[in-house]
Task: structure prediction
Amino acid sequence: MSDTLLARLTEVVGATHVLTELGGHPDLADYRGVYQGRALAIVHPGSTAEVASVMRLSHAARTPVVVQGGNTGLLGGATPDESGRAVVLKLHRLNRVRAIDPSNDTITVEAGCVLQHVQEQAAAADRLFPLALGAQGSCTIGGNLATNAGGIQVLRYGNMRELTLGLEVVTAQGEVWHGLRGLRKDNTGYDLRDAFIGSEGTLGVITAATLKLFPKPVGCLTALLRVASPEDAVSLLGLLRQRWGGALTAFELFSGSVLGFVRARLPDKPLPVPDLDEASWYALVDYADFSGDPVQQTLFEKPLADALESGLLTDATIAQNEGQRQKWWHLREHGVMEAQATLGRNVKHDISLPISRIPSFLVQSQARLQQRFPALFIIAYGHLGDGNLHYNLVRPESLPLAEFIGWEDEIHELVHDLVHEFGGSISAEHGVGQGKRDALLRYKDPVELALMGRLKQAFDPEGILNPGKVLPASVWPGA
Amino acid sequence: MSDTLLARLTEVVGATHVLTELGGHPDLADYRGVYQGRALAIVHPGSTAEVASVMRLSHAARTPVVVQGGNTGLLGGATPDESGRAVVLKLHRLNRVRAIDPSNDTITVEAGCVLQHVQEQAAAADRLFPLALGAQGSCTIGGNLATNAGGIQVLRYGNMRELTLGLEVVTAQGEVWHGLRGLRKDNTGYDLRDAFIGSEGTLGVITAATLKLFPKPVGCLTALLRVASPEDAVSLLGLLRQRWGGALTAFELFSGSVLGFVRARLPDKPLPVPDLDEASWYALVDYADFSGDPVQQTLFEKPLADALESGLLTDATIAQNEGQRQKWWHLREHGVMEAQATLGRNVKHDISLPISRIPSFLVQSQARLQQRFPALFIIAYGHLGDGNLHYNLVRPESLPLAEFIGWEDEIHELVHDLVHEFGGSISAEHGVGQGKRDALLRYKDPVELALMGRLKQAFDPEGILNPGKVLPASVWPGA
Result:
């Protein structure tokens, strides 16, 4: 059976694009090495028509298909299981920019395009594609769509979902839905687009998308702002949203203690924060300048001056040049992660909360963790403007790694239980994959889980698309 | 059977809330009187729990349920069919604002809340709920969600879909999905929210929603701008999006000939447009001021001055006071409709197109219409910033109404065929209902229609929710 399938797949995509000698192949594991699987073959189709043929053949053979983009996910959503039955469908050859329409502010790209390439193509047309995240040099648009990627400009431009107007999708049965619309308004039936976005390859294979573009700011003003508490950070966010209007494009929060941790762990790298106060909190904020008029500097600075005068801000530093700005953003995007990595494995959470409840969440989570695990150090930082925190726990050097790893499940449960009590989400932007699949049983509304199962049954009744991902087995047991 | 059901419904919601003497009841017709139906009863539940009970009873009895909000729809989506078998579920008693959280910028409201009431509640908390449309004094949030309402600020804030964070939904089977999240990021499974939004009561009954709020601008600057052509209007839109950044909140286009038509049809009302040039085109634009700084006037005017100098603008008038601004907006929101109404019935289209293709669409549609129906007058205006045109045809007074009505189907087909050729949508913001249901067969991708049918089958296999709406019978034949 599988030999026949392999022969037919080879006919469709060509022998050089069907890999079957897979010992140690990197695409059978996630990039962190946490998940490891096996596969019948890794297939590299070169067009939507080839993807459709692969799906028809796999569907006829009842062979599972695991779609993979840049393989930068954190929860094993693109890693096949250990059965070795699946075909891994790697879409990097679908990498054309099919169209760019500056007057309509849209770009149509194939799923295998690397995010940074799309950003660059937009910039070349004097436009902005605003999705921006750490992995942008290797993650692909298909993966961004499959996981509804977020990142640092969501408070202004939205998640991948809000940035997408149309999709081209190959169904589980190998049909092609030609849904590449470049329309801001279209109310002619059910919203299938958003059913596929965020479904992590379990409902269909996204092969192309029409995405929104935006005017490119002519400049960006950046400040590092110090406040006394998370409450004050929330007030500051409200003030800047109000006074800066649509010009506020990023609002990132760090605790001073996290910055102190970075300084201590990376002693060779000067921390770009003068007079660090570890008891304070810091916000890194971007203001987009569209007019290029020098008066923007005044509009940018006035609310900061008012906040200093009122005491809401205890300090404010404005980036004097692009180099200073880049140092702050490097600290945000890479410095904190590097500092954590010096201690090996840590326990990560990608959570979101109503913004108004973040201050009390931080107090209560710290209290509960310190009661149960007094030795742990809390790394809390992230996208306050989206209510999205990266909430990580690192071990002290004195604690053996094995003991720390033994606590992992209990730490996750403690944090996620509290997130749930606060009306939050246990996966803000990383998705579900394998890693959080069974946690959904604990935290999701049972009616919602049942509806998810019905949707899966409707679109992929044979269960060949990315089995074992997103849906707990009791919600959708598979075909 | 139906007597038993009525008795049980009465037990659940109380006798005063089950109407069965329905002769001439206005809720059995749409407000324009185009669609007329019959019903077993009109039921007014007072809570989500009562809605769930009504759905459980109706589902057990296999009785259709037609959900209705403010009954302001244009396509018969909330009007029952003529069988008289359906229960009409009117949600106006679900009208509580359940919560408002200014720090999270969210408001949680029940489906029966009137849109204008939600706008006012947001304003009272110093926030903006940006959905704004002509029917806002009577349409409800439930109807806005069911049809994914649009309106005049979509280019800045999005449609109802983009304004919604969470939903509470009663399923066809009478279960309650508690999905009222106030989160900007949540990637824990399939996007059920957007499956229900825009489904016009055919997939579930939306009973409440958590909606996004925004900072309230402290002022609004408005201009009426004259350009030579639709091409120049598209260029002007691009310029203002670029130079004004997020401050551009509305961009409405009229042809000068439409304004001349308004002046001719409403001779008692002075047209608030000086020196009207019927061969030109006019854009009504809003600029939101968030800072309150007098320098905003400069930022607002500078691109207009540049456009005048370059010749892109041939004239520009800036509103000198709120009264002048209101006159222009009244012309947009009411004047054009009033002028059309003086000639009785007209043929309306609610279409969207890629913005870049609107100029050539206008040329080609006019050519095709004039060839076939030389007597007709074209009323083209609408939300250029969203690619959404209201494209209406009015008869000359010399043409008998009956003859004009006889052309109606052919006019629709001519216009919609061209919209389809241009990659547009035949329903930008009004939905499908009964009126455009069968047109979907002509214009929708067959794979898309099949997926819609599968979704309906998954969520409402007995077909009790709003039968005969949205889905053509060949796509989903009913239970």
In short: Residues 253 and 283 of chain A are 5 Å apart (CA to CA). Chain A touches chain B through 104 residues (CB under 8 Å). DSSP finds 14 helices and 18 strands in chain A.
